[in-house]
Amino acid sequence: MNNFSLGLPPTIQPIDSPIAQQAGVELSVLRLDAMHPWVNGNKWFKLKYNLLEAKQRNLTTLLTFGGAYSNHIFATAAAGKLFGFRTIGMIRGEERLPLNSTLRFAVEQGMQIFYLDRQKYRERHTTALQAQLQQRFGDVFIVPEGGSNLNGVRGCMEILNNQAFDTVCVACGTGTTLAGIILSLHKDQRAIGFPVLKNGGFLASEVDSWLNNYLVSDLPLADEAMSKSWELICDYHMGGYAKVNDELLQFQQQFTQEHGVPLDYVYTAKMFYGVMDLLKQGFFPKGDRLLLIHTGGLQGNISY
C-alpha cells in the first residue's frame, strides 16, 4: 500500500496507419487506458501522490468533487476501495434517481455521494467551503476536482517514463496532465496539448501557472535543464466540452475498428481526430516519432 502501485505499466501500441505512413511519421499510442480496469489513464497519475500524502498524514478519508459523469469520481471511488480509503464524492447539481452508471459504480465501491448546487459548487476551491466540509465530515483529505493540484502534476511527470519520442500529444481539460508531461520532457522533445473545451487558448496561462508553481515548490524535478517546448492546438473541440458530432462519432468507431484502440468521446477521440487531420496536412515533420497519450475515460462513453 505504501507504494500505491497498480502493477501494470502502460504499453506502447504502434499504429499502422496509411495516413501516418504517407506523412512519413511513426505513430504510436501510450495505452494508459489499459493499466487497470477502473483506475487508469491520467486519473491514476493525478491521484497517486494525493493518496501518498493522505497516507503520510494518517488520513483515512478522501473527499473530492466532480460532475455526475466524472471520470475522476469513478477513479477515486475505485482507488479508495483498492487502497483502503473511505471516499466521499461531492457531486455538482441536484440528485437524479436512478443513479447513472458512473455514480452507481462509485457507490458500489463504497463512496458516499452528496450534492452541491451549482452556485455552491463554484466555491469548491475556496478555503471557506473546504472548512465547512472539514467541519461536516471530520478530518478528511480533500482532493481537488480532477486531481488537479501539484501532486497531480508530479504524478503526470511519470507518464512518459523516459520514452524516446519526438512529439507527444495529449488531450487537455485543465492543463494539469500537460504540465506534468512538459516537466518530464527531454531535450529536443515537444508536447502538444489539444484542449477539448471551446476557446481553449486560456489553458496556456493555466499550464504556465502549473509549471511556475511546480518549479518554485519543493517537489522533485527529473531534470532542471529540461526543454519546455510545447504548444496548444485549439481547433478540435467539436463545439465544446463533452460536445460530439457525427463526424467525431464516425471517426471514433472507424479508428477503434481499424486499430483496436477504443477512444472516449470527451477527450481522446478529439485529440486523435486532430492528430490524424494534422497528419493529412503535413503538420508534423517527416521522420517524427509521434506518441499519442491515451488518457482513459472510456467509462464516460456509456452516457452517449
- What structural class do helix, strand and pairing data support? alpha/beta
Biggest sheet details:
6 strands, mixed
Q: Mean pLDDT, nearest integer?
A: 93
Low-confidence stretches: none
| Number of E-type strands | 10
Number of helices: 11
| Mass-distribution shape | globular
Order of helices and strands: EHEHEHEHEHHEHEHEHEHHE
Q: Helix share of residues?
A: 25-40%
Gap between N and C termini: 35 Å
Sheet with the most strands: spatial strand order? 1-2-10-7-8-9
Report the radius of gyration as a whole number of Å: 19 Å
Oligomer: single chain
Strand content: 15-25%
Task: Report on this structure.
- With 304 residues, the protein is of the alpha/beta class.
- The chain has helices at 18-23, 41-56, 71-83, 101-108, 118-121, 127-137, 150-156, 176-183, 203-215, 246-259, 268-280, and strands spanning 11-14, 26-31, 61-66, 86-92, 112-116, 141-143, 167-172, 190-195, 230-232, 289-294.
- The strands form two sheets. The chain has a six-stranded mixed beta sheet with strand order 1-2-10-7-8-9, sandwiched between helices.
- Strand 8, helix 9 (203-215) and strand 9 (230-232) form a beta-alpha-beta unit.
- The longest helix has 16 residues, at 41-56.
- The two termini are 35 Å apart.
Helices and strands, with pairings:
Elements: E1 11-14, H1 18-23, E2 26-31, H2 41-56, E3 61-66, H3 71-83, E4 86-92, H4 101-108, E5 112-116, H5 118-121, H6 127-137, E6 141-143, H7 150-156, E7 167-172, H8 176-183, E8 190-195, H9 203-215, E9 230-232, H10 246-259, H11 268-280, E10 289-294
Parallel strand pairs: 2-10, 3-4, 3-6, 4-5, 7-8, 7-10, 8-9
Antiparallel strand pairs: 1-2
Helix pairs in contact: 2-7, 3-4, 7-8, 8-9
